[in-house]
Structure formats: C-alpha cells, structure tokens
Design goal:
alpha+beta; Serine Threonine Protein Phosphatase 5, Tetratricopeptide repeat; SH3 type barrels; globular
Length: 253
C-alpha cells in the first residue's frame, strides 16, 4: 500500500512538473515573439532548473542570446542543441551565423578522406538515435520473421524473408555505429570560452609564458584538469592552460 501511495505521489509530482514546464515554455515563446529576450531567457532557465532539457530548449536559448548580441552564450546553447540533434540543419545554420561573429578564426587540422568519411557517418546521428534505430530494425526483423512464418505465397515469403534479414543487418550496423559514436562522445570534452579575452599559458599558473589569446565563443577541447585550471586544445592542435572560470563545458547537462 505504501509503495502504491508513493507511486501515485511521484506520478502527480511528475505531471505537475511537466505542466509547469509547458507553461514556462509558452511564456518564453510569447516573450521572445514580443522581443523581450531577457525575459524569455529567464523562463527557459527555469525549465532547466526543473531538470528538463531538449535540443529545442537549447536552440531557443541560443536564439535569444543571439538576438541580444551575446555570442558566447548563443554558440554555447547552439552547440548543446547540436549534441542532442547532430544532423539538424536549422541548428547548424544558426550556429554558423553565430560563429561568423566571433573574433577567433582558427584553422582546423587537416584530416584524411577516410577519417573525414568515418566521422561523417558515425556522427550522422547521436548514439541515442543510433540505439533507437537499432531497436526499430530489430522490430522489423521480428515482424518480417512472423509474416514469413504465416504466409503461403512463395513470392511474399521471399519478400518478408529479405525484409527480415535486412532489418537484422541494419540493427547490427546501428548497434556498431552507436558504440563508435558513444566512444567519440566520451573521448571529447568540448567547452566554449565565455570571457571577452583570455590568455592561454604554458603552465597552470599566472606566472608562466603566455602562448596565445582566445576570445568569447571559441570552441576548445578540455584534455586535462588541475585544480582550478583546464588544459585546452584548439582546432589547429595548439594546447595550453587557462582558469576554469573562463569556459563552460558543453556536455554538462
């Protein structure tokens, strides 16, 4: 009886949070449409405080910050939206616009055709989306097998058999892609610079040599952490240290 009571309370609480988030999202959309971007951001952040996140929410936050000319936060939220929907054209377009407004223009290290093709295929979907696709293909495999079992027409049986085998093959491929994409996801620890300008040094202290300067909105990859300092790597391969307070990690949801 106690477990059932707790389950009912949990359901009512969850339903209440969802309803509240829907109301906040509606208020945020209305504020955004009226040009009250700071107010919209406040509503969106309340949804985040309720532990709900989505690509749509981060995308809208990116748009609101972009309207205010806040390049660092806009790039940050576009990148977070892209982590959840890596193949979304609209997110990519808006991120491209925001990136054109940042100061740092860093040339990426060249990649071989094979490596570029591998990353394109693996990162076409997130590992969660690859997993969902695998489940769908397994369903197709089972459905094709059941249909094959009950059909009598030879041509129809052949079609259902081929569909079943195709579903199995695609399910295996999707699982492999999910595994590779998850490894890629775990390997990188991207972050966005939030300070107007920050010097990157050779060692994790203020007395060491100044290597180069980064500006708001630049994307880096955190490769090491020591106290309140982060060692970062930029797209052209250069590395150095900067204080943790000057960047925000993208995978921290």
């Amino acid at each position: 009886m106690k477990e059932a009571y707790m389950a009912i309370l949990f359901f009512l609480f969850s339903f209440g949070v969802i309803a509240q988030n829907n109301t906040l999202f509606q208020h945020a959309t209305e504020s955004y449409n009226e040009g009250e971007y700071n107010k919209a951001i406040g509503f969106y952040e309340q949804i985040l405080d309720n532990k709900q996140h989505s690509s749509e929410l981060y995308f809208n936050l990116g748009n609101a910050h972009y309207k205010l000319g806040e390049i660092g936060p806009s790039i940050y939220y576009y990148e977070k939206a892209l982590l959840l929907k890596p193949n979304d054209v609209e997110i990519k377009n808006n991120l491209s616009y925001a990136n054109n407004m940042k100061l740092d223009a860093i040339d990426e290290m060249p990649e071989t055709v094979l490596v570029s093709f591998y990353k394109t295929v693996v990162n076409y979907l997130s590992f969660e989306q690859w997993a969902y696709l695998a489940v769908g293909m397994i369903f197709l495999f089972v459905l094709g097998y059941i249909v094959y079992y009950f059909l009598y027409n030879a041509t129809h049986k052949r079609i259902s058999f081929i569909a079943s085998v195709l579903g199995l093959v695609l399910a295996v491929i999707s699982v492999i892609m999910a595994y590779f994409q998850y490894n890629e996801f775990q390997k990188d620890n991207p972050a966005i610079i939030f300070s107007r300008e920050i010097a990157v040094t050779s060692e994790p202290n203020d007395r060491s040599e100044r290597l180069f300067t980064l500006h708001e909105g630049t994307k880096v990859n955190v490769v090491e952490e020591l106290g309140n300092w982060q060692k970062v790597k930029i797209a052209d391969g250069q590395t150095g240290w900067l204080p943790s307070e000057h960047l925000k990690l993208l995978k921290k949801f």
